[in-house]
Amino acid sequence: MNDDAAITDTPEPLLKMTGLRIEGQADEQWNEIVHGVDVVLHRGEVLGLIGESGAGKSTIGLAAMGYARPGCRLSGGDIVFDGVELRSASENYKRDLRGVRIAYVAQSAAAAFNPAHRLIDQFAEAPVHHGVKSRAEAEADAKDLYRQLQLPYPEQIGYRYPHQVSGGQLQRAMTAMAMSCRPDLIIFDEPTTALDVTTQIEVLAAVKDVVKQFNTAAIYITHDLAVVAQMADRIMVLRYGNLVEEGTADQIINHPKEDYTQRLLAVRTYRKPDADPPSEEPLLRIEDVSASYSGSARVLENIDLEIGRQRTVAVVGESGSGKSTLARVITGLLPPEDGRILFEGEALPPALPQRTREKLRRLQMIYQMPDTALNPRQRLRDIIGRPLTFYLGLTGRKREDRVRELLEMIELEPDDFIDRYPTELSGGQKQRVCIARALAAQPDLIICDEVTSALDQLVAEEILKLLQRLQDELHVSYMFITHDLATVRAISDEIVVMLQGRIVEQGTKNDVLTPPHHDYTDLLLSSVPEMEIGWLDRTLAEREGRRSRGEKVLESADQ
Amino acid sequence: MQDALRLLRSSPWSARFGMFVVLFYVFMATFAPVLTPYGESEIVAAEYEPWSSEFLLGTDNLGRDMLTRLIYGARNTIGIALVTTVLAFLIGSVTGFLAATLGGWTDQAISRVVDILMAIPQLIFALLILTIVGTAIPVLVVVIAVLDSTRVFRLARAVAMNIVVMDYVEVARLRGEGLWWIMRRELLPNALPPLVAEFGLRFCFVFLLLSALSFLGLGIQPPTADWGSMVRDNATLITFGDFTPILPAASIALLTVGVNFIVDWFLHQTAGLKDE
CB contact, 8 Å: B180 with chain A? Predict the structure, then answer.
């Protein structure tokens, strides 16, 4: 370029979106979902887009490729990528751009890979198709990238099918695939959200490393400020399709200006006050329980557990640790092979059909996905009212009054909500309804299976506070199944750490969370991202240091 | 109610045409005795009279008025097809939901029986049974309903399978709800849209099967007017270049097309597909 004006102190940005407006279609109408957002990204820079669901962060990320999802359209503003306006560019031009100069890494690598082709074939597809590399060059390059992303067996792993490698590995293979044409820009859309914490840290490290090495610009989309603090140079906080705040990572994390950003940062600071363990007979006692699915390998081995009255016991573990299976055993959906379960000192029949209605009533469950836990064709009146009729025999006026009372308890206005269908509620409201349905039975113990993990952080915190308030008022006990240690810190009295179907550590919250830890607990605790810039590098350096001193460092089960 | 009106107003021309056709047929069937100039099986003139002001569509092979029989035919054929389809759906949905909810051996047993029934071509199977047990209308209805319920079973089971794995069904199970409650309150409302759409299609097939059986002489028996047998009885006329026998066949075709237009629209609505 001969134009002198272009060679200034601030070079032309790689990507510049000005006044970006995006509309989405609902009920035959176009509604604006992104209201004029400006995004500037320079070469080699990592920009973090953060916000809750519905903030428009993924939509903006995709718009950087000149792409709108089906049912959405780019209705206004300019998208200039390396000097070319993409909104008016031809489909052919954009097609040549995508995959070569702009790449995309999706949240669920398992869903983004084609299960019918080997990893390396999918890796080679873009560079060969776009004529960037020959097939042999692409394969050699793939192995190189696999090595840099610290995938095990980089020479061979490419010849596996997607279902033959783990989630964390797949996410790294996806990143390698995005790097295949050495793009100028990669868009990461929540790449670690579906992963366990111990896996997440490794993927984060690998991604950070590669992006830095090739000086690739990146847009990193996430809802987790602690993660974005590790990855991004600059952060944009979004809400309802508007920009709330923009600044360097340091500005946003350490000196947030806006109230909303401060609230996002303050999330996860809620702590339940310590309470003394009760001395009386525990409500639920699990003795030496083992279980498996139809005779295959054991999923649970020799579990011993007690839950006291008005106590919250958190069962922590990563996917595959057997924590949800434990819930199925307690509820009777999966009768145990060995051991027994005592409820108030009395043995619970192992299988669901053998339990009396009264026993079923006292043990309720709340699910992870409120969307699938509520029948979309029933009104809240019937959803909450059914347990009242079924267990307590309430009908007519009495039932109606009680439903309203329960709605008030979960902080939903009865007149407004009683006739609604679940689809007319937000995610947090749905989860509240699930809580009300469980409470309607007046249970002694509620099993909460990952109840906050499908919710936005601010909403999740409200739910936790609600559960805590209800416990104080109604004296119920909770068994809290979760993989999120922040939730554990917030709500638990006691903690049970599970790994591969066994309990590796259990005790009161303070016992478990203060060192010395069991090795696995230590790995788990140290892998949770902290709201601090440089945490990732520090943690990895620490682990490396310990390894070099010959101390034992557990690897993620994913390796 | 307002939703229904708004939906109706947003319907495409094809659906409106379909609704018009179906309403027209229903009107004809309901008021057949009032609308027809002669009795259903009354012999009013010589055989094969041409079209005239007295016999608008001429007369048939026995000298009965064509128009009269065409209108009565709507009543008989549609009525029987409707009853048959409803019965088929009752049988198919209940067994399909049972198979999906209980799973295991119940599912295996019902599914294999259905496989056996489906392995034999439907028309031949129906012919076989009807020759053995006779062709009284109740028998006809039950036989076709049972044969057709296998298709409904397949759909109901497949749809229910996707619903049974939902957490809200597990919630109901954990609550201790009985089988019937789960099927009626948790499964049925969520399985309804595809089942209703299928109902429209099945109705057409039953209708066609019924007409085919009548054409072959094993369906609705004379002197009851029925479109299938009317085609057969007057088929010879075609050789003389008279297209009157085509009219009952055209009536069948028109209704089938109309119903399908409505079903298409309904499917489009419930599936949430948008023009792209």
Answer: no
Conformation bin of residue A227: beta by default, left when phi > 0, alpha when psi is -120 to 50: alpha
Q: Would you list the domain boundaries of chain A?
A: 14-265, 284-524
User: B113 to each of A341, B103, B142, how far by Cα in Å?
Assistant: 41, 15, 17
Confidence of residue A558 (pLDDT cuts 50, 70, 90): low
- Structurally, what CATH architecture does the domain formed by A14-265 represent? 3-Layer(aba) Sandwich (3.40)
Residue B183, both tokens = 């099927």
Site from A372, A389, A437, A439 to mutate, B interface, most B CB atoms within 10 angstroms: A372
Q: pLDDT tens-digit profile of A531-542?
A: 888 888 888 888
pTM reported for the whole predicted model:
0.82
Tell me if chain B has a CB within 8 Å of the CB of A351: no
The answer to whether the A14-265 and A284-524 domains have the same CATH topology is yes
Predicted confidence (pLDDT) at residue A7 exceeds the cutoff of 60: no
Q: Which fold has domain A284-524?
A: Rossmann fold (3.40.50)
pLDDT at A1: 41
User: Is residue B181 less than 8 Å (CB to CB) from chain A?
Assistant: no
- The domains of chain B, with CATH numbers, are 19-271 (1.10.3720.10)
Nearest CB neighbour to A374, from listed B168, B175, B189 = B168
